[in-house]
Amino acid sequence: MERLIWDAHVCLPLSTETDVSDLLAYRRAGVGFLSLNIGMCMNPVAQIDPVIAHFSAAIDATEGLKRVRTVDDLEPGITGVAFDLEGARPLLGQAEAVAGFHARGVRMMHLAYNRNNAVAGGCHDAPMGLSALGRDVVAEANRLGVMLDLSHTGEASSFDIIEASDQPVVYSHANPAGLFDHARNISDAQMRAVAQQGGVVCPTGVAKFMGLDQPPGAADMMALIEYTLNVVGEEHVGVGSDMWFGQEGVDETPPDGTFDPHYWWPERYGYDHSGGELGGGYMAPQEWSVLPGLLDARLGARVVDLVLGQNMRRVAAQVWR
User: Fold this and answer.
1) Which of 131, 188, 285, 308 has the greatest number of C-beta atoms within 10 Å?
2) What is the DSSP annotation of 240-270?
3) 45/240 Cα distance (integer angstroms)
């Protein structure tokens, strides 16, 4: 029987021209589920809505991929896909807007993406706690069955979201600051707070957040996974690659022209805008075919089953509906 491998966060270009067959690389690597980004705080609803429609139709038409709404929709031999939203600005100040995204397949969301907004604080901005509107958004996400994701969120808001949520929350793609100091990385205290609530912390294969200057491979993930296991325990660790499939000629600029990479990824945190590459490279899909064997040899199959998929599946089974 195929082992469940769960990539907690993947990105395609946010365009109706995007070829979703790039995701078949995950099927070839044995990945059984991936969470696909459909928008961030800087993307207006006028861009996000057609992207959701395009991704949905294209996934439905692609053999080997399947949109899933609950864990019962997962099938061996097929890569299930659900959507995630990175930040609450597309809610336009309305907690009720979570329902519209949930109805269209969003099963996970951040409340902030790097910068502060009316809901929560971002990790690249002044400290800010969860607002009253943010608490309403948390309650609505809990009610509908949208998993809350603390990646890109500031520390104060992260702790507030954990406290406000009556469901487990996750870090779908965040690395331990104890291994590499970057504002996008998270403290042991943040990781423990998620675990104590029953959630999962997923180290991510982004070179910039690992202190690397080249795309990481499966072997580079080992230290991150082992460190996180030592902090939170075997039932609270997953993996999220944060892989971004760049496509030449695809315009990432939102239709309203407000996109400013220097604002969303400030140079003071080491982001390099000279070549258009913000992350420094990502763990490619094919590395998923290598990572299980490396982990099995180090940790044993039972623990690896939890880390590669069963921990995130458990949280999804509790939260999604």
Assistant:
1) 308
2) B--EE---TT---S-TTS---HHHHS-GGGT
3) 25
Mean pLDDT of the 35-56 span: 95
Spell out the domain ranges in the chain.
Answer: 6-93+171-314
Alpha helices in the chain (DSSP H): 24-28, 45-60, 97-103, 132-144, 155-164, 188-196, 218-232, 261-264, 291-299, 301-305, 311-319
Render pLDDT for 79-114 as a digit per residue (tens, 0 to 9).
Answer: 999 999 999 999 999 999 999 999 999 999 999 999
Cβ partners under 8 Å of residue 61, min gap 6: none
Computed over its alpha carbons, how large is the radius of gyration of the chain? 18
CATH architecture, range 6-93+171-314: Alpha-Beta Barrel (3.20)
Q: pLDDT confidence of 156, banded at 50, 70, 90?
A: very high
Closest by CA position to 11, among listed 91, 100, 110:
110
Tell me how far apart the terminal alpha carbons of the chain are, to the nearest angstrom.
26
